[in-house]
Amino acid sequence: xxxxxxxxxxxxxxTIVYSQDRSLYILHTNNTNGALENCYCPDHPLGxxxxxxxxxxxxxxxHSRTLVLDAGDFFTMSKKLLKDSLVCxxxxxxxxxxxxxxxxxxxxxxxxxxxxxxxIQASIVVTNLExxxxxxxxxxxxxxxxxxxxxxxxxxxGNAMKYYPQEIRDSIIITDPITAINDxxxxxxxxxxxxxxxxxQGFDEDQRxxxxxxxxxxxxxxxxxxxxxxxxxxxxxxxxxxxxDGYYVGVIELKLSKYKKVDDRLISTVAMTQEMPDHTRVMExxxxxxxxxxxxxxxxxxxxxxxxx
Length: 309
Known about the structure:
Number of strands: 15
CATH class: Alpha Beta
Strand content: 15-25%
Number of domains: 1
CATH superfamily: Metallo-dependent phosphatases
Order of helices and strands: HEHEHEHHEEEEEHEHEHEEEEEHH
Shape: globular
CATH topology: Purple Acid Phosphatase, chain A, domain 2
Helix content: 25-40%
Distance between the termini: 79 Å
Number of helices: 10
CATH architecture: 4-Layer Sandwich
Low-confidence stretches: 7-20
Oligomer: single chain
């Protein structure tokens, strides 16, 4: 009798807890472009990784069922290799579940990538990459979060490389995104409740891709550095991005039914404002970069000390 009572109590308790928050939250970033901290530009008074790291940690404390994703181009646009390496270390302060590589990463030397990407300490997912061979890159990842099974895929669009020299483009082999996605979905759909697709191709291309897909719930994109003001849903797939240079963290809330199906979708974009605290480790990396390279932001000196010398 006591055993039956305990089982009944546990069943009711689990039902109540699950009904209180059936949402899955997705924090997403893209096109950080090597920005470790605020550029101190008058027209862009927002921070970057130094703010993001603590924001994400605090968000997860309040929302345990959260995915943290990045859709690529976290390296610098100007190929500053020291800074690229430090960005990988800064990303390790954020509990990313998966990252996609963008053109700014894939066009680096593979030996360099194999040296620095492990510093991120997170899974790298590129579903349609055939070459180069990079350590630790996988075609998909399965994540379990509070009883929810989530599949994460990532594809790079062919247009992402179009402005690079032919020699570089020839060294990077990416397969057809739709074929690669469907191949993986055929393997994991029966084991997942939610499918999230990372893309690096641009917002317009994401909308075209969504028309051709079945079984995907969310596309987290990049490359075009878009900041959507309202949820964009194509073919029942939510599509979102989070701007550029680390100014924002995108927040997606998927409201789920008791059958773990998406009932509703909400999005917001959270600005990394100057009032937000800085992550100590990221600021140490910023100082190391300045001391080692001698490249100190004059706008920063003027903002902090009233001088640009």
